[in-house]
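Sample intake sheet
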Amino acid sequence: MIDLLRSVNYRLQPGLVRDLCHVLRTSLPWLIAGPRGGGKTALAEALAEACALPIFYLQGMDGITLEDIIGRWDRQAQDMHVRYEVEFGKRPLAEVREEIHSREFFLFADPLAAYAYAEANGLPPIFILDEADKLDVRAQDMLLQLLGRGFAYVPGLGKVGVSDQSLWPVVIILSNDMRHELSAPFRSRCLFSMLPMPNIIEQAEILHLRCSDAPLTLVREMAKVLDALQSIASISDKPGPREAIQLIRALHGAGIATLNREVLDEHVAFLAKNQKDILNIEKATDRLAVAARSPHQLIDAWGTI
């Protein structure tokens, strides 16, 4: 599994390999918690790419409704069908009305669509529920039957989904643990993993894999800058691998192969996420430029492998 994900430039932390294997064997939803920018969403997307599976997606947010989870009837298409068949087909109205509650007229939302896809194709897709901690308890409750039994009841259609648990979608639920506490019934349906922020060597390898075209020297310098940023207490929202990948790609695209004060000054927007942090990083660009060029036992040793 590690090699499979490496083939699509994703480095899976060793502690998660065991849990991923449990998920694939049991078909239970996988709840992954961890800090922003630590690679949770990238893991789900990399798994889909590596296995050539389609992705279904739901963004967690306030105000999620049952239509966002199950879907809704296409009333306009139903009405058009009835009018056409009655007017041109000369068919009885009651007879035509019996036809409009079919899948042809139902607009599936992605959560239920993932299970319907598995049922129709005999192949489990990937279903990503991102930022699940933004769901209130009511929205979590609306997902319980689908996550726990593999199907949902749709008025007019009946049971929709897949009964064979081995064909359930690979459900990956991501949480930053920043807003709502996920309920006990919701958590009980999932296998749970914690994805911590990668250590400095893991970060260097992630940067190298995700920015494989960039010079190794630039990757190594960026890893040193990330390490230095972690030690600056005045920076409240410290950048991680996501921001570093974006910056490396921008620099490489502009033909910049090294980090100095001028480069860091020009690209603070990639690293800071609020006004206070912009000021604090700008004050630290001399220090960061020195860190980028200074010896670092761990990063320099990794960079020569």
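Comment: Residues 216-230 form the longest helix (15 residues). The chain has two domains: 2-70+109-194, 200-303.
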